[in-house]
Design brief:
With 121 residues, the protein is mainly α. It is 79% helix and 0% strand. The protein contains seven helices and no strands. Helix 4 runs antiparallel to helix 6.
Length: 121
């Protein structure tokens, strides 16, 4: 939310950047792998498509959680960890999605995502 962005205390964010980065990178990667491999093993999509889907789904936005945290005046460090992770996990998901699109472009399989991969630079 815009108000949360304005209330961001840079010192608190950068002081916790290691933990925030760990949650964002490792958490998004694990979520992507779990969802992607599960979809692939269940036969819903091809492997690269499953991984792209996993990357898209892994980028979550905890607006409701942050609103509750603000309402109950949760510890600022906990708030910053969740807020910071939500900011960075979007970037991680974009990088993962682009990586899997490139994989699809190099190893094409006929699918709805194939058109996206061919249009990718």
């Amino acid at each position: 939310s815009t108000q949360s962005t304005w209330d961001l205390h840079k010192g608190n964010f950068f002081r916790n950047l290691g933990s925030i980065s760990l949650f964002a990178v490792v958490g998004t990667l694990l979520s992507t792998l779990f969802i992607g491999v599960s979809c692939w093993l269940l036969g819903f999509l091809e492997f690269s498509e499953s991984m792209m889907f996993g990357a898209l789904i892994s980028a979550i936005d905890p607006v409701a959680t942050l609103a509750i945290f603000e309402a109950v005046h949760v510890d600022p460090t906990v708030y910053m960890l969740v807020f910071g992770e939500s900011v960075l996990n979007d970037a991680v998901a974009v990088v993962l999605m682009h990586t899997f699109l490139r994989f699809e472009w190099i190893h094409p399989v006929y699918s709805p995502f194939s058109a996206l991969a061919r249009d990718s630079p």
